[in-house]
Design a protein that fits this description.
The chain is mainly alpha-helical and 341 residues long. The chain has two domains: 6-128, no CATH class; 143-339, hpI Integrase, Chain A (Orthogonal Bundle), CATH 1.10.443. It is built from 13 helices and seven strands. It has helices at residues 9-22, 35-55, 69-92, 97-117, 143-151, 153-158, 161-176, 180-183, 217-224, 238-251, 284-296, 301-308, 315-339; strands spanning 6-8, 60-62, 191-194, 197-203, 210-214, 257-263, 269-276. The protein has a three-stranded antiparallel beta sheet. The longest helix has 25 residues, at 315-339.
Length: 341
């Protein structure tokens, strides 16, 4: 009897990542994968290795099963059990639905590669992996709060040096609408002068799109004093930046409680208390603030998308439009209330 051939998931993952790093595997548009995407792949692989160590088993895949109904059923059941156990493992480590969804999405990408690019005959049951997703509410700084960060000298002088650097990063991020990965990779070569104005031009690591932004003087001044000789902004890890942002916003007095909703996989809405505003601030707030501020202050959707790099049919960009309209409605309601006495 011929022994069934098997391959091991972690081993195949290693080869897959190497192809991505060397550029032999590219995106559909022909561009190399963004370094942040490869970091995600390595993170998932690391968790898989941890899972295998805890469960004392190696995740394997049968190959060459063709249309054998019995083997297809067996392998489908095996992959389903793996999905359930791995999801439970991630939940027990405190992972959110979005984080678990990321892992399943990456695993489906890997298995799709093995099937269609490498030509291996494996079970298609991986296509049924559940990609959990929670649409978390958009949290942004109001134009008044961005103005406070830019202009309040007394607050600036009260901060320790590391929070002054954090504030500079926050101000730039809330102005230029770049993704965090692009923001922290800005170099002197990204700046140019034309007609007495300073422009920032970059090629997005994630989408490959070209963005050119005319900079206000306060951003130019921040770039001039940047402590990172190799770049325009101070070097700081995303984890440390998130911690600093929470501290900075708390010192600014933005401690109001927020009671928002999460839209889950089944599209159900449940009111949830998330704590204080400052405790929920992360680096994501910078790009979100810049986009919603531009929209709220009247910039056209086309112009904002040109700066942010969103496509015309982007669902995430549509959420920014909805949020900015809600802000405008609130402001108008306040005006009408004053008029009515």
């Amino acid at each position: 009897m011929v022994k069934k051939k098997e391959i091991y998931l972690v081993s195949e993952f290693t080869n897959f990542i190497k192809l991505c790093e060397t550029g032999k595997r590219k995106k559909k548009n022909g561009y190399k994968l963004a370094p942040s995407t490869i970091v995600q792949y390595k993170c998932v692989q690391s968790k898989l290795i941890e899972f295998e160590a805890c469960s004392e088993t190696k995740i394997r895949l049968r190959i060459g099963i063709g249309n054998n109904k019995k083997l297809l059923k067996q392998e489908g059941s095996y992959l389903k059990r793996f999905e359930i156990k791995y999801t439970k493992f991630l939940r027990q480590s405190g992972s959110s639905n979005n984080y678990i969804g990321l892992h399943m999405k990456v695993l489906k990408t890997l298995l799709k590669y093995l099937t269609y690019d490498k030509g291996l005959s494996i079970s298609s049951a991986y296509k049924n992996f559940t990609v959990y997703k929670e649409e978390k509410p958009i949290l942004v700084l109001s134009p008044e709060r961005v103005s406070f960060l830019i202009n309040n000298r007394e607050f600036h002088d009260s901060l320790p040096a590391y929070l002054k650097r954090t504030k500079d990063i926050l101000i730039v991020g809330c102005t230029v609408a770049l993704r965090y990965s692009d923001l922290m990779n800005l170099k002197r070569k990204n700046l140019s002068r034309y007609n007495n104005a300073t422009y920032l031009q970059i090629v997005s690591q994630k989408t490959g799109s070209i963005t050119k932004i005319r900079l206000p003087e306060y951003v130019v001044e921040i770039f001039k004093k940047g402590s990172n000789k190799k770049g325009l902004l101070p070097l700081i890890s995303n984890h440390r930046l998130n911690s600093n942002l929470k501290e900075l916003c708390a010192l600014a007095g933005w401690t109001e409680p927020i009671d928002l909703q999460i839209i889950g996989k089944t599209n159900t809405r449940q009111p949830m208390y998330f704590g204080r505003f400052c405790d929920n601030v992360t680096s994501h707030i910078m790009r979100r603030t810049a986009i919603t501020t531009m929209l709220s202050l009247g910039m056209s959707e086309t112009a904002v998308r040109k700066i942010s790099g969103h496509s015309a049919n982007s669902t995430s960009f549509h959420r920014y439009i909805q949020f900015s309209q809600a802000y405008l409605d609130s402001e108008i309601e306040g005006v009408f209330s004053k008029l009515q006495g």
